[in-house]
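subagent[fold] <- orchestrator: predict structure for attached chain, return tokens only, no commentary.
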Amino acid sequence: MRVWRDGDRRGPWRSTSDGFNFVSAERVCPGWAPFSDPSNGGTAVTEIPSDATFTPEEGTDDWADPSELPLEDVQEVFATLAKALRAYQLYDSRNPVYQRFVAALGEALSRVWRSRDRLQVLVEEERLTWLGEEVYRNEDRSESLAFVLYRDGIRDLTLKEGLERTELEGFLDALHRARRTAREGDDLVTILWDLDLEFLGYTALDIGVDGLALPSGLAPGGVDVEGVLRGELGEATGIEVESSDTVEDSERAAGSEGEAATPGIVKKEDFNPTLYALDPGEVRRLAEELEREMARDLRTAVLNALFDRLEEPERPERQVEILGILRVLLPNLLSRGALGSAGKIVGELQRMRDRTGVFDAEIEPLAASVLEELSEPESVRELVRALEDGSVPPNPEELENLLQSMRPSALAPLLAASEWTGDQGVRRLLLSSVQRLAEGNRGLLVELLGSEDSRVACGAVRLVGRMGLTEASGSLARLLDEGGPEIRRAVVDAAGQIQSSVLAGALQRLLRDSDRELRIAAARALGAMRYGRAAVDFEKILGSKELRQADVTEKVAFFEAYGRLAGAGAVPFLAATLNRRGFLGRRDPSDLRAGAALALGKIGTPEARSVLEQARNEDDPVVRSAVVRALRGEGEPPNE
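subagent[fold] -> orchestrator:
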């Protein structure tokens, strides 16, 4: 094992038959310390105790009062260095985020240089120390700056004034390469040696090559290598180290004996586990990190990276390329049911378009075209088909976020889709989701009421009703008079949710329409609207010959609506219909009397209940059943 210390002379040590030749920086073995050797202009070595530790150079950090140490400034340097290294891994060198971290690191170093011209720290497996004080710690080895240094053998690190001006990014690149390098690649010491950084110093341990024969005799500096190894290794592991005179004989014997061990040859099996061995706690942490990585939303991480680079207006070529990727990616995500990711793309693109300076005049139309394609009728039809066949999970929140981010031009095809789909669940989901898009485009929604496409018009009518848009009352009233059967039915269904006298007047005209379904729907809608002015018209219709010829459903609908609209004023008319006897004791038909009983139940006043009690023991089973149902009901307060 050797120690390398960065010095004034460059080049590697080389082993020869008579020892080690000095051609480079100072290198010593653990347990040895350097001393000056003027004879060769370099550094020699001398033996020191094996339990000795690395200490900073004398005189470089001599402080009379420890309380005056700029500890916070030094801690800030290495905290910022770790952040800058992370930014180097994630962002391009031109990215503003990366440049901001590098600038912050330069400022942190400049604050340290106010009191010194160099900063020397000792490297431990999980932390860095300076003058005995901890200045950096991270127990997560995958992110730890200290472990990157320690793993590759560096035991102390010296940053010198001037590093931040010319060599800072080179140092970050070296750390990044060392962290990501393959097992067979260069380690950090080799990378730093190649870079030959002027303002960076370090001391490193180098584990010897497996199977290296130990030279005999003394090294040029006068050190007995064999004796040192015998003391260090023989006593600790029981290895018997032979002199170099018997190495060749041992090798020949090993060749003849096959797998027999060769004395005098040091192998890594002879040593205890190195720092790469993991304890149970480390294995558990690795398993947790692996599980967290496998559960990470990789798709979102990739999209975030694309958006980070899309925000760089100084790189228009890259923006064009990313927009092309998103154009292909959007329909692919929709077909896979990834509504959340598709909504994220659309939302981020819209926010970037709203910000000034992100897209220039040439890029802006490309970004707009991506959003327009998603809002085209064909794209909407594909989305609805996917919802119908179940390939897209019906997540209301994700669908709402996606539809809200669509262009207003998507409103018409979405409304049409809500009409032609035969899946009632999908229809409700579409109407609920598209409502958020329509909230910001109410004027366009009212315009769509007059669409030539009956499906778009019907969808718009239903959505207007859900939203209770009174400003659309005039358009709805015109549709009741001029629209086709499907549109008129849709208007009647929606009218009960809109309080408008204009619309109520149009509904009142439908009470005598030739379409039975429209008459029943109009009666129920007027009752739900509590439009009291129609009570007189209802009373006339209830006493007409036309209603007597209608079926039970229509009669009940008209009676119940009349009860809601007329309230207590309707009790005399309904009481006469329910209990009066005509010529020779004849009564009204059973279905009319049953309808009157149900209407009295809707009124719910004491007078109305008194009339119902008179008919409780009615012989007619149809009337008796209606009276019992009316008495059991809670009733509704009379219309004011």
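orchestrator: received. Logging for downstream: Residues 70-206 form one domain. The chain is about 55% helix and 10% strand.
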